[in-house]
């Protein structure tokens, strides 16, 4: 039997051992130490089969790239000007200095070259925040009937800042009106119980008006100006859109319009009386659809809430008076063929980010054959439309890749 006493005190450290072989990185995330760079030359054609209603072959151009290892910059150092991953390692013996201490060196200064400076210029179009394609339209749902005329529009906030605002609904009456009717919720709208009646300062022209972030956006009748009316504070701003169609028939003392021919007025958007501007909202923000005084071409402008114009497109080969209505969803402009036939089609699809026309058609149904307003709302991804006094909406099916368009 062997007895063991208590452990004694720790002895002095031993001598250092021999130097081992060069180490090898066993990094958990090796991608942190490589960068993908393009290889000069033409792209590679990639062919793949895809099943939609019928088999199709999709041909894509794929950029050829390769992974290049690089050594991460140690903390406290910055790369020299012009250096990027993939270049030879810079010589530290001549002018490499610590970022801390001397801030006048040619390496670090105050900027980390791997982080771009924040952009402080005017708004730009940027990237498409949601890429999707309209594949099919569902069955229309009747929400209520307007207590006014057979022409008008109805809306929910396309960018609400609270659940309270998201529940509200708004209705306009006629082709042009200075009045906006607000309802607390859809039940109150169905029971025709108004919450507030807004009298805006100007006549709102057309049925393409919009509620966005608690403000009412409309086109000031007889002018090239757009107006934003804050529903909470009643403050408003006004801005010129530019050379747009706007000259309309004269108004009579009873607030109706004179009869006039096309030579006395500018062409109406969608051939809808007194309609010149159609506001739209999608996942990318606000848009306006309109025409020029001397042209039937369709124009689209991306705007900010303060009416700063980010970019403008002329949609090729599209007559703005021949469409029945239009909306924008996921950065794609869609156009409806007819507002007065029961069975119609969404026959126009134009990608505003890639500037490409997308072939195909999607079936559309006008239950009451009198559509006067059509909007997409990104909050619930539904289409809202006003059809012969009825307030309706319809669900849509989106495809994130290729649409099931009918031939």
From TrEMBL:
Q: Where is the Olfactomedin-like domain?
A: 131-400
What keyword terms does UniProt attach to this protein? Secreted
One GO cellular component term, please give it.
extracellular space
Asked whether the keyword Lipoprotein is assigned, the reply is: no
InterPro entries for this protein: Olfac-like_dom, Olfactomedin-like_domain
Under Pfam families, the record lists: OLF
Task: Say where the protein is mainly found.
Answer: secreted
Q: Is Secreted one of the keywords?
A: yes
Q: Write the protein's name.
A: Olfactomedin-like domain-containing protein
Listed SMART domains: OLF
State where the protein is found. Secreted
One Gene Ontology term from the biological process aspect of the record: signal transduction
